[in-house]
Recover the amino acids of this structure.
């Protein structure tokens, strides 16, 4: 079993915390001049997404987590699993609803996602920062309104609903920021 | 091949000039007071026995020591400076690099600059006065600092952690840590070393509150954390030791110096036992220091001031790397 000592702590290190995989967000070395040294870390649980603070005595060790980030292309959804392929090795894997979470609404075939694997199993699926999606339903905009102020809801081909300017019409493709869920521009 | 920028200094030229200016002012401060600048060896055949300090170790081979002599980079110039004091040189100061293995972070670099001085006939309170004067003279007035304050170690713990550090047991410290949502390191759970528990609460709850808008001197440490300070009788007995804080950052550590050679030897031996118990490397205790104390150390107080951290505050820097030319990863 691989372990890391406090000397190896740094942002991005993947470790096991209370039985869950976690990533170190920030590590601070604290030590009174004539006293005990500690590592104060902010650490994010990769399953729950929650960030907590933990303190370790210098020299303590923590179990390493077999967590890697890989880029994979989204292929299709079979109703239960989302299927992905490594574009270089053609290796495929499937992710369940837990790893996709709310990101399901951004999943568009062919898009390259970052998949965080824990012991080879998808833990988190991150869609690209921006995706291009087609509008399948929105109210017709008011004639002559090009200001975009106010906006209206639009349902996209993946089921996501975003606010778009009034001049955007059914059938158009738009660029959306998946981190904020906001409309960026026409595609 | 991509060229790396790692050859560049991490401090700006402006900050390097500030360092030089502050060093000039420090020398002027001591010169005005008739305190003599001295230099002592960075390489020593002895090392600090303090289990909380790890010394770099190297080896000299050559004339005088054809088979080699194990030598340690000093973690502070304290021992040889006390030998000078015992030899009758009067009040002295030194500006120099010290070395501590295992310490790197926002406030730590394994080598850093200490301003260390000793004042004959001073106790730790008089030395706190002088430390205030020096630090206030070095810091820019735009910081708008209020008058310095003094807090005993007990007052600070009571105020900021709600616990009496002199009477609390390990279980009490643990309860206090949990009630402040500090995750207790697993290695501490079975630990009865109260100094480590105090350090946990000190670093997490007390230190961040010290030195807010003014210099805070923390003094009267638990006798078990006397280090090289004399212990004052009382209930409980406390160490004549102080630390200076500004913006939650520890800047200086001072003592009314222990002069009793027997007590000094006992402390060295206790620390060496602690090192063995913790699996830390054994180091030779400083025989010449003990001999100098036998000869007689004049009544004095001494303090070590972290120069780099002082520059950080003067420059408004958030990391020690911003005020030294080449931190350990570029050294």
């Amino acid at each position: 079993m691989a372990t890391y000592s406090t000397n190896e702590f740094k942002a991005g290190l993947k470790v096991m915390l209370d039985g869950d995989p976690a990533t170190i967000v920030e590590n601070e070395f604290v030590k009174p001049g004539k006293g005990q040294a500690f590592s104060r870390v902010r650490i994010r649980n990769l399953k729950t997404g929650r960030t907590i603070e933990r303190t370790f005595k210098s020299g303590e060790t923590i179990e390493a987590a077999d967590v890697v980030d890989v880029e994979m292309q989204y292929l299709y959804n079979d109703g239960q699993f989302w299927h992905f392929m490594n574009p270089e090795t053609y290796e495929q894997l499937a992710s369940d609803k837990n790893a996709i979470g709310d990101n399901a609404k951004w999943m568009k075939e062919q898009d390259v996602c970052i998949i965080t694997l824990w012991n080879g199993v998808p833990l988190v699926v991150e869609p690209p920062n921006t995706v291009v999606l087609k509008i399948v339903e929105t109210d017709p905009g008011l004639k002559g309104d090009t200001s975009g102020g106010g906006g209206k809801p639009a349902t996209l081909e993946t089921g996501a609903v975003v606010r778009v300017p009034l001049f955007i019409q059914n059938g158009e493709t738009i660029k959306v920021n998946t981190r904020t869920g906001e409309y960026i521009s026409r595609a | 091949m991509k060229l790396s920028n790692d050859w560049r200094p991490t401090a700006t030229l402006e900050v390097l000039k500030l360092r030089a200016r502050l060093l000039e002012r420090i020398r002027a401060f001591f010169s005005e007071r008739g305190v003599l600048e001295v230099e002592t060896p960075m390489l020593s055949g002895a090392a600090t026995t303090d289990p909380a300090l790890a010394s770099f170790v190297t080896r000299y081979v050559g004339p005088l020591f054809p088979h080699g002599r194990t030598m340690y980079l000093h973690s502070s110039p304290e021992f040889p400076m006390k030998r000078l004091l015992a030899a009758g040189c009067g009040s002295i100061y030194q500006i120099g690099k010290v070395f501590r293995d295992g310490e790197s972070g926002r406030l730590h670099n394994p080598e850093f600059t200490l301003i260390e001085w000793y004042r004959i006939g001073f106790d730790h309170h008089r030395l706190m006065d002088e430390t205030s004067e020096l630090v206030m003279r070095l810091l820019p007035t735009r910081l708008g600092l209020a008058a310095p304050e003094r807090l005993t170690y007990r007052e600070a713990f009571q105020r900021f952690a709600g616990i009496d550090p002199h009477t609390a047991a390990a279980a009490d410290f643990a309860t206090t840590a949990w009630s402040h949502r500090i995750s207790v390191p697993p290695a501490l759970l079975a630990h009865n070393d109260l100094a480590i528990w105090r350090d946990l609460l000190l670093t997490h709850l007390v230190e961040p509150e010290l030195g807010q808008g003014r210099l805070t001197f923390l003094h009267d440490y638990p006798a078990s954390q006397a280090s090289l300070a004399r212990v004052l009788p009382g209930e409980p007995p406390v160490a004549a030791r102080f630390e200076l804080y500004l913006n939650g950052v520890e800047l200086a550590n001072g003592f009314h110096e222990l002069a009793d050679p027997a007590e000094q030897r006992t402390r060295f031996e206790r620390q060496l036992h602690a090192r063995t118990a913790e699996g830390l490397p054994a180091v030779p205790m400083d025989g010449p220091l003990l001999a100098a104390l036998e000869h007689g150390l004049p009544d004095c107080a001494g303090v070590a001031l972290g120069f780099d951290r002082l520059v950080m505050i003067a420059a408004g820097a958030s990391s020690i790397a911003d005020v030294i030319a080449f931190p350990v990863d570029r050294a």
User: Anything to note?
Assistant: The longest strand of chain A covers residues 20-30. The radius of gyration of chain A is 22 Å. The interface with chain B takes residues 7, 28-38, 40, 52-60 of chain A (CB under 8 Å).
